[in-house]
Design goal:
The protein is of the alpha+beta class. It is built from 3 helices and 7 strands. A 4-stranded mixed sheet has the order 4-5-6-7, with helices on one face. Helix 1 crosses helix 2.
Length: 140
């Protein structure tokens, strides 16, 4: 897998592209007019996107329709010298529809414990936890 980044201004704005050819703008939050996501925001988005694709795929294979899907990913950071890596991430998955609660929870469990390459990559140094909410109620 390979991505490219091309600088787009005289500061920190980059256009990143992967094999798909689609681009993502990356910027530094310290500039006056931010025009892209920060690299740390992209990590959170990667966890949210990866798990979303898994969960939707798992439920679709079971012929379960999802009316709406929303995910929130929040990260805690710690200071390590000059860097501030994530120490923990919390993912809240919100599903709406006629979905059996046990199947929604199992899909999330499979994603975070078996399939989501992004969260599994981070596992060694970042505690990634998740909750599933179905039609407004937490599934346990």
């Amino acid at each position: 897998m390979k991505v490219t980044l091309d600088r787009k201004n005289n500061d920190y704005l980059f256009e990143a592209k992967g094999a798909s050819g689609n681009s993502v703008m990356i910027d530094n939050k310290t500039v006056d007019e931010v025009k892209g996501s920060s690299p740390m925001e992209l990590l959170l988005m990667g966890v949210g996107g990866c798990s979303a694709i898994d969960i939707i795929s798992i439920l679709k294979k079971q012929k379960i329709e999802i009316d709406t899907y929303h995910v929130e990913v929040e990260g805690d950071r710690k200071e390590v010298g000059q860097a501030k890596p994530f120490s923990a991430m919390r993912v809240n998955v919100y599903l709406e529809g006629d979905i059996p609660p046990a199947k929604a929870l199992r899909a999330a469990q499979l994603s975070f414990e078996k399939y989501c390459s992004v969260s599994i990559t981070l596992q060694a140094g970042v505690e990634v936890t998740y909750k599933v909410f179905l039609n407004g109620e937490e599934v346990e």
